[in-house]
Amino acid sequence: MTDIDRVLISGAGPVGCSAALYLAQNGIPVTLAEAASELPEDLRASTFHPPTLDMLDDLGVVDQLIGQGIICPKWQYRDTREGVVAEWDLGVLENDTRHPYRVQCEQYKLTRIMVAELEKMDNVDVRFRTQGIEAAQDDQGVTLTVETPDGQDELKGRYLIAADGASSAIRISQGIEFPGLTFPELWLCTSSEYNFEDHFEDLAPIAYIADPNFWFVFVRVPGLWRLLLPSRPGETADSLVSDETVQDRMHQVCPIDGDYDTFHRTAYAVHQRVAETYRKGRIFLAGDSAHINNPLGGMGMNGGIHDAVNLSEKLVRVWRGDADDREFDKYDAQRRPIAIDYVQQTTLRNKAMLEETDAEVRKATHDEMRATVADPAKARKFLRQSSMINALDKANSLA
Ligand SMILES: Cc1cc2nc3c(=O)[nH]c(=O)nc-3n(C[C@H](O)[C@H](O)[C@H](O)COP(=O)(O)OP(=O)(O)OC[C@H]3O[C@@H](n4cnc5c(N)ncnc54)[C@H](O)[C@@H]3O)c2cc1C
Q: Which of 208, 207, 212 is nearest to 360 (CA)?
């Protein structure tokens, strides 16, 4: 085996770590290069959907994840005026998945679990403080130029997975366009130990709360409620995370005496974008480097892990000589349409539903939702869609 006989992965987020674990478990040497000095403690994704849990089970890490998270068999769609509109019970998916529930767990716990597993493996080289800058390729392999504390270096491998997030240096270095839109408003994500369930009757651990003027989302993670809501015109990232604004919004969500204790607060710009291609020769984009969307529905990280598994399956087949390079075309053909036709459309629709101002449209949506949840066959169909099971079936049927 020469030095080049490995797969390079840039970025140790949930997507890069998933690909690294899959490849290494299948005997492929991997170098996982992460720009940060340690794993980022990202307070971003927290919802793991059933088919993602099945994949993490196959990778041998789901029990650890569940052990550090919360099993959520139910989630709600609510309205500030009407209370619970629909409570979805994922139990109807018992024949569709080994995990008929969502798990709420911070994404950084997954990357910590995975890197701990990777560091036990002989065929994995995990490098921190190793920032991918640009990549070049020829018939034999790929060269990734990296910045390290000791200066620039070159890593060589047969293939390169760009799992380096939304601002992917590799995607940019390859001149791959990232068309789409950025919402004018910022989104505030904050968390508190406050017991919101004492004020919101029957509050499920995941609740999307519609209101024409003030929609918001509650998600539970161990020990905390996280709250997600949009900024108002004129607010900046600094003003949105100020004590004054955070307290104002939290009191609007739930008026209490005194101030809320908050555990964290972050302002995010939110985009809907899909890369014009997921593959350039031996270089592949996966996760946020390939697609980004608003977090309503919890599809960014989940879809990224689905990319990682889809791509890794193909890398293993080609590596073992069971398929030729044309196999890689299927990665783009299977995963890119899912991001465009399914994830982008669903997340945009979720946002439109929450902020709908037309009372008749809102009523029609709520009536339809109530009818769907009351009919187990319709509820199953809806939940297969919202849990990304249909998207995976569709991807497998493409190409
Ligand atoms: C508020 C919020 C809530 C969300 N909730 C959910 C949810 O519940 N469910 C869901 O599915 N998705 C959710 N998402 C989206 C989710 O966080 C992302 O889709 C997910 O983090 C993407 O994973 P990734 O590994 O592709 O990229 P990232 O998580 O961004 O990881 C990229 C990694 O690459 C590293 N890196 C960056 N540049 C370089 C470089 N040049 N060289 C080397 N390393 C580099 C970074 O340090 C990082 O470790 C949410 C997002 C937000 C903002």
A: 212
User: Quick one: CA dihedral 141, 146, 150, 153, positive or negative?
Assistant: positive
Separation of 397 CA from ligand 1 center, angstroms? 27
307 lines ligand 1 (CB under 6 A): no
Tell me which fold the domain 7-70+105-179+272-356+391-397 belongs to: FAD/NAD(P)-binding domain (3.50.50)
| Both tokens assigned to 382 | 């809806």
| Ligand 1 atom, smallest distance to 289 CA | 26
| Nearest CA among 208, 202, 245, 244 for reference residue 226 | 208
Question: Which phi and psi (to 5°) does residue 275 adopt?
Answer: -65, 150
Residue 284 C-alpha from the chain's centroid: 18
Q: Using 50, 70 and 90 to split pLDDT, how confident is the model at 3?
A: confident
Identify any residues that bridge with 249 across adjacent strands, giving them in sequence order: none
Rounded-to-integer distance, Cα 308 and Cα 20, Å: 9
Q: Write phi, then psi, for 274 (nearest 5 degrees).
A: -135, 135
228 Cα nearest atom in ligand 1: 1
Nearest residue (by CA) to ligand 1, atom 51, is 44
Q: Residue 132: which of 285, 280, 306 has the closest Cα?
A: 285
pLDDT tens-digit series, residues 46-92: 999 999 999 999 999 999 999 999 999 999 999 999 999 999 999 99
Are 159 and 315 in contact by the 8 Å Cβ rule? The answer is yes
**Separation of alpha carbons 193 and 171, rounded Å:** 39
Sign of the torsion formed by the C-alpha atoms of 131, 166, 397 and 53: positive
CA distance 319 to 360: 56
Which stretches of the chain are assigned E, i.e. beta strand? 7-10, 30-33, 47-48, 70-72, 74-79, 83-89, 102-104, 124-127, 131-137, 142-148, 151-157, 159-162, 180-192, 206-210, 216-221, 224-230, 264-274, 279-280, 283-285, 291-292
Kindly state if the Cβ of 298 falls inside 6 Å of ligand 1. Answer: yes
Q: If you ran DSSP here, which 8-state letter would residue 141 be given?
A: -
pLDDT for 334 equals: 97
For ligand 1, whether the C-beta of 69 sits within 6 Å is: no
Q: What is the pTM of this model?
A: 0.97
State whether residue 40 is helix, strand or coil.
coil
Ligand 1 pocket test: which of 273, 301, 335 has the largest number of ligand atoms within 8 Å of its C-beta? 301
